[in-house]
Amino acid sequence: MTLVDDLQALLGPDRVHSHPLELLVYAKDSGVTPGEAVAAVLPETTQEVAACVRTAARHGVPVVARGTGTGLAGGAVPDLPALLVVMTRVDPPWEIHRGSRCAWVGAGALNLDVSRGVEELGLHFAPDPSSEAACTVGGNVGTNAGGPHCLAEGTTVAHILGMEMVTASGEVVVLGGAAPDPVGLDLRGVVVGSEGTLGIVTRVLVKLTENAPAVRTLLLTFDSIRDAAATVSSVIGDGIVPAALEMMDQPTVIAVDAFTRGDLPVGAAAVLLAEVVGLDAAVDEEARTIERIGREQGATSVRVAADEAERTLLWKARKSAFGAVAQTAPDYFLNDAVVPRTALVDVVTEIYAIGDRFGVKMLNVFHAGDGNIHPLVVYDAREPGMTDQVRAAAEEMMRVAVAAGGSLTGEHGVGLLRRDLMDLVFTPIDLDAQARLRDAFDPDGILNPGKVLPRGARCNDFGMIPEPGGD
Amino acid sequence: MLKQELARLARGLLADPIPGAPEAEFTITPDTGEDAAAILAFASGNGLRVRFWGAGNHQAMGNSVPADILMATTRLDSIVDWQVEDLTVVVEPGVAVADLEAGLQQQNQAAVLPEVPGTATVGGVVAAGLSGWRRLRYGPTRDRMLEVRLATGDGRLIRGGGRLVKNVTGYDLPRLATGSFGSLGLITEVCLKLWPLPPEHAMVHVEDAEQARKAAYRPLALIETNTGATLYLSGSREEIEAQAERVGGDLVPGHCWPQPLVGDTEAVLRVPPSDVGELVARLREADIDFQAAHGVGEIRIAAEVDQLVELRHAAERAGGALVIVRVPPEIDFDPWGKPPDGIELQRRVKQAFDPRGVANPGILPGGI
Questions:
Q1: Which of A171, A222, A232, B279 is most buried as measured by Cβ atoms within 10 A of its Cβ?
Q2: What phi and psi, each to the nearest 5 degrees, are found at residue B83?
Q3: Quick check: B85 and A281 CB within 8 A?
Q4: Are A268 and A250 in contact (CB under 8 A)?
Q5: Which residues numbered 3-62 in B keep a CB inside 8 Å of some CB on A?
Q6: What's the pLDDT tens digit per position in B306-324?
Q7: In this predicted model, which residue has the larger pLDDT, A197 or A306?
Q8: Interface membership of B309 toward A (CB under 8 Å)
Q9: Residues paired with B235 in a beta bridge
Q10: Of chain A residues 363-402, which have a CB less than 8 A from chain B?
């Protein structure tokens, strides 16, 4: 019996795909790195996921869990030919606990559907990646996804109270729960952001956040990125932590305006989108403070969204940035570096210089409030040598960010894209420790091998002590 | 022979026994993370058990740990780096929480650690995974752990996370270390995310805690004790007044936090927030001293040992736990109760950092 035979016996023929054309689709995400799949399966229950994992292990085939494929870092793209476990159908009925403000949802539930599903209770799921309408909660857990509103609320990990997970050995465990601080080691916390290398999360206990009674959204324009960045620092220095603080440079605004027809200030060198939430009494005052600081730092205009429709339009513009960029060239490469907020201006200046030096076209859009920069290099992969040129430029940009005290990724994940740059941030001993942690969950390396850590991260020679029983 | 070698290795770091600390052959106070790692490497290689010690505030938590070496963080007591504009601070574990917060307050910032810390150290609070009352608004301590340096049980000095407020590069070791009770090794440095302190602070005493929770918008804390319930607020004057209007009550300026419970026996109930009301009613009926954090699900209690069994059952039935903070030394009472699901994974993760099992051996649930 082949792997596909066994899987078909398990799930029936309709939920097992092995045609090369189908596999081509499943074995990629929304990013630039292709992968190879042996088969793709569509389980519907936790038990089916567990059975798929056990079956693949028996055949010695690695397993990669995947949601809707909105990732940009290759986290769900197989590094070795693998069985793809497509999690989109794993979404049993939700259990909403209003009193405890949390809900069990399936890994296949879409991010925005969760917030919509609890809207009438006055609650929402805080992580709001730009792909919120299409990405799954399981994928959010895998990448520890972010979004503009993570500035005040934190990334996904701060909103996951527990999970049901299939382990590498095909067992089902529940980590965490609705009660605070479960006893024992916080395995829940370490599974979030582990890109499916520690287990396959099938159900998620999400924390629900109260909707704010009032919101004020401001659009500030500037003649320079420097002035906009100075505004970001001053606002936070003033003791305000806005719900979101987003920046777009002129090329991005032009691309987005063409895409959304949002009546955006295309003449400005930089645009800052700021949002404050809370009680009416608080948001008016904070909005006034942001406006004052913006003007002090040279804002050329300040527009406050007059109503919900205008606010929605401004956010649509921001969240369309990647889609809009995709219309300017066939391919784009996303950077996701994070730097200390205070290093923002210097790093961004340097990144523009790198773009010029490598002769690549670039658009900059960033979560300025938490120092998460997204230089998007747009190009045409059909041009000979262009992909290499873009990758070289991107690597240079990451080096600059790391040298300024930053790191490789703020919300999109390490995946395949940044895996081989991990040694810019961590020492061999640090990486070895992470590899040991991974081995503790998956001793045979069957879950999404080749992700998060570079090959050869496990260095036995760092164990200064002989293995137990070896002496 | 072994003792001579250890004495030579720990030269200059040996200290007198610490009052109140359990007996151990050696008391060692490392000066640096490297010192701690070197001693742990030696201990691991020779099967010597190491118990970690901050200021002794949480030592009664967890299973009892026999020790050959007591490793105290007394000399790891520096504030290493404070980036005021980035709202991050890097500290060594021996820094007292009270000192850290007092320093941060000079720039109107806070690490939002427990409000009445006594002599507790940052390392102790992080290792015990404790949060302050304000976690209703700011989330638990683990969500502010940006970076950790850990001298592992087998003597490697490793770093996880980064000094950045947003970062998903690599596995989340800072969160794993939070609440690990020294089972992975000694935390030798942490980077914490800070919050700006709002200008005004006030309280409102409320009649009905559940109703106040529904009416207030994301207050700092809502604490009920035997004497009543109090809503804790901060923000601008206008904001605080608006909150008071929503819940209906008079503003009392400033914050007065519950003082630590007294008595031989203290425990904490951790339950889903929706179970707090029912448990509070039960505690009132049994005349047990309590401090309940509504919206969080944490209830600190001072009770008789024989009352704990029933309460533990109730907490575990609700999907939570009753964790012992302290019991009289002569009493043998399981500190954790029901071990968590995935206990084998817990065991293997401990082994990944401490293969010989010398770092606070057995302290966690399941004797891990």
A1: A232
A2: -95, 95
A3: no
A4: yes
A5: 41, 44-45
A6: 999 999 999 999 999 999 9
A7: A197
A8: no
A9: B200
A10: 367, 370-372
